[in-house]
């Protein structure tokens, strides 16, 4: 759209005035505020044909929105919810989700685009200045409020009758205690619950994947096996809470590679059992490096050396993983020789 | 009296229906006095002013889609066997919360879309608040009279983080459960009461069977209720204070220049809501977010690698990842510093930015109202502080994803962690110094432009062969804009001995204040803006280069 298209009679006479109004730099202060710059007309302000084009554009956007909403309804009805389509370059998508999202997005976006285009091209863009008023009240109002307050306070005699004031403060301060009291039954007291797990003497080590009790021959060098205590089943009501403490990881080391004396004592033929729950903030440890016997918690990267009492060698964990003392029962299955001797999982105040 | 009323009501009888409804409402609600002050209220225009709008609109979108999700979500941890239409998980044990989220994603038509809009809008809401807060910070829009509104906004950001956290924990999937476990471990580290807090929050041992239902009421009622109230208060104050504006011709501290609410702002801001909603809907159509079916139901003994919280919690995650594992045992107790220090740092780092307005106003001692925004370069120390704060935040965020940095860029995870440990202390110092130098450089450039004009790029050859670049003097508008900012002078304690020779006692706080003031506004910390005399001397007569 070039300016030649604008009919002469549409050019407003005010423009001349506006140009003349530009203030000349103040001789005294060249940095002085020259005031609001003159309004510059948009093409739509002076050319009715341009304005009509804008109008048609806005109407088009609103119409597209209407069509998109119809498209949304049609997609909802027509597209089966399990159909998947390939969209380059995104990949496979749920066809229904894709269609509903695009049509809804388009319907909404076009309303917005239409409204903004309308505001920018057709509504007045003359800048207006509004006065600001100080936020704080004038002095007389301030004094009136202070005086009113003093009057009210005096009439209540709260300052004079101290007995009333003090007992009222006491009552109001005490009453929320009832609310605090009511929170007591949110949960039981910790007691020694964090110190005990389901493990006890004679409990078999059951393979988490096969649900079968483990024999020493099931644990190969270099493999990582996860185990749970015998008698804990997925359908049990307290399964989640019990497994959160009892989860075990089992690896087989060469006995001569075990550096820690107690670890060797608590192992069986080089098979060691450690708590799977990280001593940092309780993530399950699941990455095992078979060459170095290091295990790594994937959440915060605490690294433990399983050949040296599972001591921390890197990361934010504060102490070694607890070891479970294991042996073999008469039938040749791996069994626990007791519970963990220290609490499993993250440290806490009473842990000691 | 009665005649006037009757004539009036008769004349109103012919008025358009809309006007009559408005009259009816005015008689009962007094809407006209409210409209008188606000209908043609002026809002200044600048692209950065829409950041707050993004937050408000995404919050509305979150509420709308959230209400829809509550129609289908079961906030229960009862274990059920899954028999829905997502084949890979059929027959698995999972909580009702997880199975109903699968139901929303696979069996409710449009359910997945609404879930994804809800989650995307939450990420955008938090990101919007962060950027909006930085806009307000770097332009000094938090100064009097807006300090309270700054705090409201800050609270919205913090509450938004926790609403987000409780929200993404609800599906009870493997990833979110891991996040909840992290939170439990962090609570356990609190000295003396930590174990009790954890037992009360989870109704016993972790995970128990209560937390989804409890998080649910926190997520859909308690926190959003408070946030809605804060957001309304935030907006009322924006209206009451009137919006800030940048310096420019015709813009003063006593006026506000822009377009009226009706119609321009109504159309632009109202339209912008639909733009934001539309864009988020399209994102939700093409970009998958939180595919809980791929992660599976939560089991405390299982985890996936590369576990990451939503971005706004990455900062807390980073603090806990790079902290060395310090533990102190004494008298049968354990002080878990390795977890407790990050837990304390988390609110402290955030609080640092929240209290900044009060520190700055104490240093300047300025009690006046400020409605003209600062350009960041004109407040070098504040800007440097803000960038240093962002640096701490970002380095910690890197720490929160140290495993991803290691795997994606083939780095050693130990090296990344050590980088973060050192960077946490060194990074902000470097950022502070560099930012301050950049600000001073930009101030010098502005001064040059004012005194010597704009570089035109036109090279002129003088008769004796010298080449010069022609500089064009700035317009008065530009001169005014570049010199409109005020510059504080460093505070001086004054003589410590009064006229009678008696030594005056200078309080330590006063000394500190003078020192900080020197650091903020001393010679090293700002370039004096050009004066009229300098300008006249350079522009008078002799051809300047």
From TrEMBL, chain A:
Residues 14-30 have a biased composition (Basic and acidic residues). Pfam families: QcrA_N (PF19297), Rieske (PF00355). It comes from Streptomyces actuosus. PROSITE patterns: RIESKE. Iron-sulfur subunit of the cytochrome bc1 complex, an essential component of the respiratory electron transport chain required for ATP synthesis. The bc1 complex catalyzes the oxidation of menaquinol and the reduction of cytochrome c in the respiratory chain. The bc1 complex operates through a Q-cycle mechanism that couples electron transfer to generation of the proton gradient that drives ATP synthesis. Residues 1-40 are annotated as: Disordered. It is a multi-pass membrane protein. The chain crosses the membrane at residues 58-79, 99-119, 163-183. It is found in: Cell membrane. Its main location: membrane. This is Cytochrome bc1 complex Rieske iron-sulfur subunit.
């Amino acid at each position: 759209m070039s300016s030649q298209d604008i009919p002469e009679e549409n050019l407003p006479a005010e423009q001349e005035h506006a140009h003349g109004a530009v203030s000349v730099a103040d001789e005294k202060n060249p940095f002085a505020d020259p005031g609001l710059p003159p309004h510059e007309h948009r093409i739509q302000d002076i050319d009715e044909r341009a304005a009509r084009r804008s109008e048609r554009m806005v109407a088009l956007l609103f119409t597209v929105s209407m069509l998109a909403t119809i498209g949304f309804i049609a997609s909802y009805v027509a597209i089966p919810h399990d159909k998947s389509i390939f969209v380059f370059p995104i990949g496979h998508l749920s066809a229904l989700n894709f269609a509903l999202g695009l049509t809804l997005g388009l319907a909404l976006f076009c309303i917005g685009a239409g409204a903004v285009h309308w505001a920018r091209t057709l509504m007045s863009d003359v800048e207006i200045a509004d006065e600001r008023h100080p936020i704080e009240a004038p002095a007389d109002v301030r004094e009136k409020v202070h005086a009113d307050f003093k009057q009210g306070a005096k009439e209540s005699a709260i300052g004079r009758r101290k007995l009333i004031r003090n007992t009222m403060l006491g009552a109001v301060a005490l009453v929320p205690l009832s609310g605090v009291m009511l929170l007591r039954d949110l949960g039981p007291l910790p007691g020694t619950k964090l110190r005990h797990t389901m493990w006890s003497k004679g409990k078999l080590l059951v393979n988490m994947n096969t649900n079968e009790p483990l024999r020493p021959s099931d644990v190969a060098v270099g493999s990582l096996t996860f185990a749970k205590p015998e008698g804990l089943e997925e359908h049990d009501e307290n399964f989640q809470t019990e497994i959160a403490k009892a989860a075990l990881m089992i690896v087989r080391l060469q006995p001569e590679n075990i550096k820690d004396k107690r670890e060797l004592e608590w192992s069986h033929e080089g098979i060691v059992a450690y708590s799977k729950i990280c001593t940092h903030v309780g993530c399950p440890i699941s990455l095992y490096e078979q060459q170095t016997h290091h295990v790594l918690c994937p959440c915060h990267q605490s690294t433990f050396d399983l050949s040296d009492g599972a001591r921390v060698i890197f990361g934010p964990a504060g102490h070694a993983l607890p070891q479970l003392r294991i042996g073999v029962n008469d039938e040749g299955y791996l069994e626990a020789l007791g519970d963990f001797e220290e609490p499993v999982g993250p440290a806490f105040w009473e842990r000691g | 009296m009665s005649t006037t009323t009757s004539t009036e009501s008769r004349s109103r009888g012919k008025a358009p229906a809309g006007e009559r409804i408005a009259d009816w409402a005015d008689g009962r609600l007094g809407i006209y006095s409210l409209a008188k002050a606000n209908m043609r209220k002026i809002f200044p225009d600048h692209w950065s002013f829409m950041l707050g709008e993004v937050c408000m609109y995404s919050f509305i979108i979150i509420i709308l889609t959230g209400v829809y999700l509550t129609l289908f979500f079961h906030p229960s941890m009862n274990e059920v066997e899954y028999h829905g239409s997502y084949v890979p998980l059929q027959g698995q044990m999972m909580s009702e919360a997880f199975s109903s989220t699968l139901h929303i994603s696979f069996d409710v038509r449009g359910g997945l879309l609404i879930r994804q809009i809800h989650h995307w809008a939450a990420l955008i809401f938090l990101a919007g608040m962060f950027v909006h807060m930085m806009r307000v910070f770097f332009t000094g829009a938090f100064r009097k009279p807006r300090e309270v509104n700054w705090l409201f906004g800050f609270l919205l950001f913090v509450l938004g983080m926790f609403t987000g956290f409780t929200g993404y924990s609800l599906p009870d999937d493997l990833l979110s459960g891991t996040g909840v476990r992290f939170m439990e471990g962090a609570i356990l580290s609190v000295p003396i009461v930590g174990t009790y807090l954890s037992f009360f929050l989870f109704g016993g041992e972790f995970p128990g069977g209560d937390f989804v239902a409890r998080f649910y009421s926190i997520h859909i009622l308690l926190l959003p209720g408070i946030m809605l109230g804060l957001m309304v208060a935030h907006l009322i104050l924006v209206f009451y204070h009137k919006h800030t504006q940048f310096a420019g011709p015709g813009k003063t501290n006593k006026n506000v220049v822009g377009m009226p609410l009706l119609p321009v702002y109504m159309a632009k801001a109202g339209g912008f809501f639909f733009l934001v909603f539309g864009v988020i809907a399209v994102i939700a159509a093409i970009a998958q977010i939180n595919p809980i079916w791929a992660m599976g139901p939560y089991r405390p003994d299982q985890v996936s690698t590369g576990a990451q919280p939503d971005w706004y919690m990455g900062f807390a995650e980073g603090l806990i990842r790079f902290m060395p594992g310090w533990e102190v045992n004494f008298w049968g107790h354990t002080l878990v510093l390795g977890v407790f220090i990050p837990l304390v740092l988390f609110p402290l780092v955030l609080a640092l930015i929240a209290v900044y307005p009060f520190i700055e106003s104490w240093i300047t001692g300025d009690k006046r109202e400020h409605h003209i925004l600062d350009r960041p370069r004109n407040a070098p120390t504040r800007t440097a502080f803000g960038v240093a704060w962002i640096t701490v935040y970002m380095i910690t965020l890197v720490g929160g994803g140290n495993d991803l940095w290691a795997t994606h860029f083939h780095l050693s995870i130990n090296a990344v962690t050590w980088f973060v440990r050192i960077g946490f202390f060194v990074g902000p110092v470097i950022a502070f110094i560099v930012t301050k130098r950049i600000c001073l450089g930009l101030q010098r450039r502005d001064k040059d432009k004012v005194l010597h004009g704009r570089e035109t790029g036109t090279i002129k050859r003088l008769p004796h062969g010298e080449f010069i670049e022609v500089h064009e003097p700035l317009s008065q508008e530009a001169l005014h804009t570049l010199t409109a900012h005020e510059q504080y002078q460093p505070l001086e304690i004054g003589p410590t001995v009064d006229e009678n020779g008696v030594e005056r006692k200078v309080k330590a706080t006063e000394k500190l204040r003078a020192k900080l003031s020197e650091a903020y506004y001393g010679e090293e910390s700002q370039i004096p803006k050009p004066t009229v005399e300098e300008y006249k001397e350079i522009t008078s007569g002799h051809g300047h280069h």
